[in-house]
Amino acid sequence: MTAGGPTTTSTATTALAADATTATATTAAPGAEPEAAGGPRQVRRRRRLSPGRRLPAARLAGPLAVLALWAAASAAGRLDPGAVPAPWTVLRTAGRLWSDGTLPTDVLTSLERAGYGFAIGLTAGVLLALASGLSRTGEALIDGTVQLNRAIPTLGLIPLFILWLGIGETFKIAIIAIVVYVPIYLNTHAALSGIDSRFVELAEVQGLSRFAFVRQVVIPGALPGFFVGLRLGVTGSWLGLVVLEQINATSGLGYLMFQAQNYGQSDVILVGLLIYGVFGLVSDGAVRLVERRVLSWRRTLSN
Hints:
By secondary structure, this protein is an all-alpha fold. It contains eleven helices and no strands. Helix 4 (102-133) packs parallel to helix 7 (169-193). It is flat.
């Protein structure tokens, strides 16, 4: 061994250690700012863009805030009791109507009308959307007709339906069904038309039958749009009901409010409006709950 051997080996070892230290410092914190001489290491924090975790019962905050503002304005004497009674007055009126049997009968009648109309509209909207969205012939025959129906004010059809179906319950249920089926059809048909054609090609390559294609591709692809239309249809059933029950009706929440208008009973009118609002909020919440369970496989901003 020569005299310069140990010195050469020590120098190589020192160089390798320095290179390893440099590589460790470079790869230890990817995305970190260069470390200042003798200063602390600065790490860039990723900005959070999602809305955050869902708050429990968050949708009740708005209605409860309106109720609190109403109660505070009534207690301070800022509202005319004859025009806008206090919340406690409305509650007393609701209790009185419930105890004498008037309110339960009207609520059950309204629920029955809305339920029949909603069931018919839901069935018609889904079947028409499937026939129009899965067939060019069906689209040619159905879509234009539905768009024409959508352009005609539904409540404007009331006089014609009275002439056709009479002034009983049938025409009320038919109008509610029309109000319901239009948004369900439009949103479901739009979701069907928006299914990626690559999924259709993949199903053809895999040799799926028509039934398997509908079950595995069409239904999952159309469900988000269907639930949007379902929520609009549920709300539409209540909106149509409040008008229809003021036409030749002898019971129902709309009839109750119409009679209260003739006698200047604003507290009774507010009872009917609050019940309609509660029905709408509860039904929309139920649809949202079912939607989250059925579409739990999706990763969206809402979940």
